[in-house]
Amino acid sequence: MAEVLPPSVEIAWGLRDRPTKGPKPTLHIDRIVEAAVQIAATDGLGAVSMGRVAKELGVGTMSLYRHVGAKDELLVLMTEAAYDTPPPAAVPGEHWREGLTRWAQRLFEVSTTNSWVLRMPVAGPPATPNQLAWMESALTVLAGSGLAPGRQIEVILLLAGFVRTEATTASDLATALATTGSSEQEAMEAYGRLMTKLVTPQRFPQVAAAFAAGVAEEDDSPVQRFDFGLTVLLDGIGALIDKTVRSPGRS
Questions:
Q1: CB 3.0-4.6 Å disulfide test: which of 23, 73, 171, 228 passes with 115?
Q2: Backbone phi, psi, residue 50, to 5°
Q3: How far apart are alpha carbons 213 and 113 in whole angstroms?
Q4: Residue 36 burial by CB count (10 A; 0-12/13-18/19+): exposed, middle or buried?
């Protein structure tokens, strides 16, 4: 039995037939998606609705349904648009670590620039062209690593999950700081002073020692934290690759 593709996937791949009867459409799916993305970027993902998009375009809501069947389909196409920036091309002879570093950094940049996409629920594995372009890029980097294809996919998903978590944290922190008018450094220093008053060595000896050492006052930006986490993660991937090379049957 033939697989039935979700309508959003059909649209993303250009597989859905355009209507041949009725008046010529005055809209194009790209305009609809662009308007929805602009709403999400300005007012958040929760503000996106078929009615709001139609209003922004100056058309009736029913006009949208000639191009996209439901809001869920529109959300998929919005995600596809967010990742339309091509991932960095693989460099011939480049070590896998440098390649994955560039890949993860670019994904972090795209995710934080389009922070609304971080609120999009993960509905399944990559299935649209732009998502698969990112996967292809990372797989190309890992092609000579010695890892089996299945392990390569697992590494990519692990790395993408790390990027999403760090980008979400950075976005949430930026939103919180915007409401207080404080810089991250000022907020962390205030937090450190509060914890120094509340935390006692008798109850939380290790936590108290950490705050006494001034860890909350360290100048540490979201990008620096991302780079640190990425380094640790790549160290672990490197250990896996080394183990695989020594014992190929366990990859």
A1: 171
A2: -60, -40
A3: 34
A4: buried
Treating both helix axes as pointing N-terminal to C-terminal, what angle do 205-212 and 184-198 enclose, rounded to 10 degrees? 130
Give the model confidence (pLDDT) of 48-105 as tens digits: 999 999 999 999 999 999 889 899 999 999 999 999 987 777 788 889 999 999 999 9
Instruction: Pull the structure tokens for residue 80.
Output: 């596809």
Rounded distance, CA 58 to CA 115, Å? 26
Nearest Cα neighbor of 79 from 49, 43, 31, 122 is 122
Class for the domain spanning 7-82: mainly alpha
Per-residue pLDDT reduced to its tens digit, 122-131: 877 888 999 9
Domain positions in the chain: 7-82, 96-181+221-250
- Fold match, 7-82 / 96-181+221-250: no
The DSSP secondary-structure symbol of 20 reads -
What fold, for 96-181+221-250? Tetracycline Repressor; domain 2 (1.10.357)
Residue 221 to residue 184: CA distance in whole angstroms: 8
- Residue showing tokens 């939380």: 204
99's tokens: 């390649």
Q: How many CB atoms lie within 10 A of CB 25?
A: 12
